[in-house]
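I'll show a record.
***
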Amino acid sequence: MKKKPHQKQSVIQTIFSNFRKRLILPKNHNDFAHYEIKKQDKGYSIIIYNERDSNRELFFNSKEELDRFIKTL
């Protein structure tokens, strides 16, 4: 049975090799930590956007606590 052009092994290898070249892998798992800091009335809040999980929102009373937490990301 003759294979269709998109089913040929060379086409499949080319597609995946192009995908691997464009794929940027992080050096560690924290490189994808996207967050947003908002100033609140009683301190600061940080919203951490996760790619596959639900977003987390944390509250801090002082700038020092916030800076200490950001260094751990």
Remarks:
- Helices lie at 9-22, 63-72.
- The longest strand covers residues 34-40.
